[in-house]
Amino acid sequence: MNSMAFGVYIHIPYCLQICPYCDFTKYELGKILPPENYVSLLTQEIRRKAPVILAGSSQRELSTVYFGGGTPSLLEPRLILSVLEELANAGFKRIPGKTEVTIEIDPATVDQPKLEAYLAMGVTRLSVGAQTFNERLLKVAGRKHSAQDTITLLTLLKNARVNYSFDLLFALPTQTLEELRADVATALYFEPSHLSAYCLTVPEGHPMSKGRAPDSEQAEMFELVESSLASQGIFRYEISNFAKPGFESKHNLLYWTDQPYWGLGTGAHGYFPPGYSEEFDRAAPWGTRFWNGPSIQLYEKEIARLGEGWQLHRDITESQLEILERHQALTDFCHTSLRLVRGLEENALRLKFGDSVALHVVEILRTLETSGLLQKTSAGWTMTNQGRLIANYVFEKLTFLRHELPPE
Ligand code: SF4
Description:
alpha/beta, Arc Repressor Mutant, subunit A, 41% helix, globular, binds iron/sulfur cluster
């Protein structure tokens, strides 16, 4: 059996409301097919594709399972359980005490019985979409839950001593530094082991782009979040993610450390790096990315077409499959490594891409170091605070075209 870590992401596209800044595939509950029918599509997807994803083995150990959305907690727990059981029947094995199983939950949708049901089925981690504890700003963000809903839920989780994370959204229109300070203080009261703090990103001209703090104040907001959390032993490990040591999201780390994952459900993405299976390597020596139809209608059609003997590199439509070339794999490697505080390791770069490519990249890394955007570590390079503020610029410098690299 292949010894790489391996995770499964399951997309649940139902939401209580449609938030104006959200890019995910989502639908208001009641506006599309009922959840039972959606889960039946997931079940068919697992059954039909499992033999290929298992790549010749009869079973595969799951490092992580992640129910994301959308709002997975809108589903009855028995439906979540049925997906986990289907995965197990297909050969994807959860290891008690080892497999991380996360579910994203909305504050207005989880009570004590639901929490107990999650824990009984083996959920090990809950990710709460808190966003802000300020009623006014919750309305600005278009959220239906109240701050009191979040506080009630976090009290429940804290008392149950479960492992939970929550999301904070900042730099919202009209939000002040003092309001963010109050949010962070409330967040810390609940002693999360993990917290994701996202600076709102909306394109220019979007209704939510007006009335936001200027760039210099947004930089202060970043600094406030980082220093307040660090003072309580919760450290940044990725651009937007903070954790107590040992509580980093194993699932998200798969995305940032070149590990394989399989995405199920509408719009879900999967990735298989080189070395996952000999068959995949023959078809795509630098790795494969693929994704499901990004609307429920497309997804339903895809599942209806799935036949026996489905093949990844043969049966996915061209617009949903990317057979990576070396320059694309290198770009992904640089971007994902630099998202992490541990940074880009020179040895790993050399090992995957060879000496001449490594030499070319190191030259660019040194230039970024001289500009104060990266700093040298014992193993490689990591982003400085200044670099994180203009991370897109750093990523642009590390985006490669085919002809820029030495010949293979
Ligand atoms: S609840 Fe989450 S997934 Fe749903 S629309 Fe809002 S931000 Fe997007």
